[in-house]
Amino acid sequence: MANKITAIRGMNDIYAADAEAFDFLISSAEAVMHQYGYHSIRLPIVEKTELFARSIGEVTDIVEKEMYTFADRNGDSLTLRPEGTAGCVRAVIQNGLTHNQVQKLYYTGPMFRYERPQKGRYRQFHQFGVEVFGLAEAQIDAELIVLSARLWEQIGLENLELQINSLGSAEARAAYRDILVAYLNEHKALLDEDSLRRLDSNPLRILDSKNPDMAELINKAPKLIDHLDEESKLHLDEVKAHLDDCGIEYVVNPNLVRGLDYYNRTVFEWVTTELGAQGTVCAGGRYDGLVEQIGGKATPAVGFAMGIERLVALLMDKELVPAQRQADVFVVLLGDNVTRPGMVLAESLREAFPQANIQMNIGGGSFKSQFKKADKSGAAYAIVLGDQEVEQKIAAVKPLRDGAEQETIAWDDLVDYMQTRIN
Ligand code: ATP
Ligand code: MG
Q: What global pTM score does this model have?
């Protein structure tokens, strides 16, 4: 026997109950998007490597060691997208979507990062992302947070903690950078290898270190939020005021810096303590400089991305996924000449009742085994077709849930008869 071919480590097949939870989450998120008037955008999975290097930042974990980068057959360096914002920014610029107009966009799909696979951390994972272009007001930062909270409410997720912070303006960050570097230099002996390297290239990234040995040093470091520019301070206050008005609780986490370089002002994460170490289920913030940095006209922007796998894990743990709709009708086919009329009959019901779940037995089997399948489908009615029924152009309709009497109905009357029975 040939060797079995398996999937790539960290890239999962999603099926059965997990797939249902996945679909439930996506359709719930889309419903919220429509509630707020956001529009769908569909983006390529592969982009030029340079796009990510320039947007996410050369000295970030993602760009330094997590990207799936390869040479195209013509030698171009391409990368499987590790996140959605960079591609979305490229797309709005390239298609002229930010000229004198606001864009409120959402997308979903797979992302790729070469990370160490573990619970809640995979090499192919999925995000649902939301991006708004053209609005600088704190109101839109707040709207994004509020609409994510609405999604949690609509899918029944409780106990997510909202953490927010401000990264200030580029100038405030530059000034703070000097203060931070001075502090880190005083404690140089405590820095790990990654951090030593970043001390020159990108010291703010050190604050995002996941190394527990660095935690104390980072906790005691001077905080960017204490060195904000006046406008960013006011902006953060406005975001907080809107959250207060809408009854959204939050904690200000001065250590929240995010793993990507493009953010300024508001950053936020929704965190759970119920998934172990991988507790952030949704993260985002403002990135006013990015559109210009990628070659567009300066455009304020803000967005976030949800980690679908982590949210699916929560939905599964808490049994929050609604049961699949059961069958309404199961068509039982018993005889030599029943398959063709049976199919036509099932189609006539699907035509008349587009919302209904109409299943049909395929592959024969005894009366008993077909009724077993009908029961398993949860159908309210079995419609039985044998050779004799076909000859007389009738069908037996047998209620399966309430023990009511079976009735014989002419094909021509079947849709009418089922009208009051299928809801
Ligand atoms: P983390 O700190 O957990 O590595 P991150 O800051 O790298 O997250 P973002 O780039 O902000 O993550 O992505 C947004 C969300 O996507 C995360 O909050 C998380 O829910 C999810 N996510 C990120 N990386 C992975 C992964 N490798 N596997 C599964 N989900 C992920
Ligand atoms: Mg990460």
A: 0.92
